[in-house]
Amino acid sequence: MAHITLRISLAAIAFVLPAVLALGSTSYNGLAKTPQMGWDNWNAYGCDIDADTLLETAEKMVDFGFRDLGYKYVILDDCWQDMERSPNGSLVANSTKFPDGMKAVADKIHDMGLLFGMYSSAGVYTCAQYPASLGHESQDARTFADWGVDYLKYDNCYNQGQEGTSKLTFDRYNTMSQALNKTGRPIHYGMCNWGKDYPWNWAQTIANSWRMSGDVYDSFDRPDDRCPCTTYDCELPGFHCSIMNIIGKVAPIVDKGQPGAWNDMDALEVGNGGMTDDEYKVHFSMWAMIKSPLIMGTNIPKMTASTYSILANAAVIAISQDSAGTPAVRIWNRAADVDEYDQGSMSLWAMALSGGDYAIALLNAGNTDVQMNATLEEIFVDKATTAGGATKGALPSSKGWDIYDLWANRMDDITATSILHGNATVNGTITDTANSTMLYNATEMAYADGIKQNHSALLGVKTDSVDPMGTLTAMVPRHGIAMFRLRARDEASKERRDEL
């Protein structure tokens, strides 16, 4: 299918990279003001990746409207290299997998209006035992810049023991940060050190995101000995960490994420087959609420309608991309019926949004459907207990609020199937977005502008209102979620209606 071509020209962009974080700024290099969005091949393909697969995926991201939802980065993970560097010490792309070289791949991705990401490690080898960048940072950064790379995922394997204190790990990752800056090219820097040595305490001035846990796997809450920790304070991050394991670990450190520098909960597993539809909705919703990057990790050309309708839910994406950049906070966490893995909990999460709106999530990780309740006092507890509280005026809990369900406009399977079969796109742009309740084009209208115009695909469906000091109630399925946008009620309009 045809698509709009857009060549990104660095020569046309005046871009100056700061040496350090500027005062008043929260992005050390001007990037990632909202959490990055895109696709990474690892969860779906592992090492079985080549130029054809990468470019086919990029084309489908355009044709399916993902680019215009904000999924901009196409990230090539491990196993792209030759086993040896060139005679001059440069990294070399595998000529069988990438016969035209990396610059050609980057150019084709840029021509689609997308951005190109690559992978290395802050060790002597990558995790798949290919040459990595420890001791070669300046040379490799120049190579990536010359190839047209826009994003670097930087792993932590084979680091020769250069960890164990925050200073050791900071210095090792800062070397690549400085090398990338010196190239003059804007390159998103995604640290992937699995939460070792507490990167949320120091990475904001050198990186755009940092992994805060061991690797995710496609399970809702199954414990695995290879992911031994259940808290952020973890000596062995491991891998095979479930969705609920990662959510539990990030809860105490959500405030460390900020515009330009985000807690990375790892790539999305939505669509890979290990969870139910409700569990995948939890996964996607909570990554958006906590402001983790939204990096798809499934086989996009073969995705199902149900997978598409989750990943393309613009109302949820608008929460992720909200300009306030405030991650959700877990207000309470309570016991619930346990499942076959002896796991079960219920929790309330809340966050402030730009323009005075709020978002909340009622997460039922228990084994049965349950009616969950959240009082306005609970939702706005921070307003009452911090920064002067009620002394600054009326609390939000003393207002009435309209409730908008952010999953009520989820795309139906017929529409999703039509898009996936190529019957609902024109020139690479999803059609009929101006008045659609399901489709949105953030290339044409930024999420912030769409919210200001009350676009129904972003706002969701108004399902209820809550009176001052009232309680919000929702039936939440087993291993499921209810997610809402709260907007202060127009009391004057309500009074006029009541008088009638």
Task: Name the descriptors.
500 residues; alpha/beta; six-stranded antiparallel beta sheet; globular
Radius of gyration, in Å, reads 23 Å
Beta strand %? 15-25%
Query: What strand order characterises the main sheet?
Result: 7-6-5-4-3-2-1-8
Class based on secondary structure composition and strand pairing: alpha/beta
Structure description:
The chain has 500 residues and is of the alpha/beta class. Helices cover 26% and strands 18% of the residues. The protein has 16 helices and 18 strands. The protein has helices at 42-45, 51-63, 66-69, 101-111, 137-147, 166-182, 243-250, 277-289, 305-311, 314-320, 376-379, 381-385, 413-420, 447-452, 456-459, 491-499; strands at 37-40, 73-75, 115-121, 151-155, 188-191, 209-211, 262-264, 294-296, 329-335, 345-352, 358-364, 370-375, 401-405, 425-426, 429-430, 461-466, 471-476, 480-488. A hairpin with a 5-residue loop joins β10 and β11. It is globular, with a radius of gyration of 23 Å. The termini are far apart.
Please render the helix and strand layout as text.
Layout: E1 37-40, H1 42-45, H2 51-63, H3 66-69, E2 73-75, H4 101-111, E3 115-121, H5 137-147, E4 151-155, H6 166-182, E5 188-191, E6 209-211, H7 243-250, E7 262-264, H8 277-289, E8 294-296, H9 305-311, H10 314-320, E9 329-335, E10 345-352, E11 358-364, E12 370-375, H11 376-379, H12 381-385, E13 401-405, H13 413-420, E14 425-426, E15 429-430, H14 447-452, H15 456-459, E16 461-466, E17 471-476, E18 480-488, H16 491-499
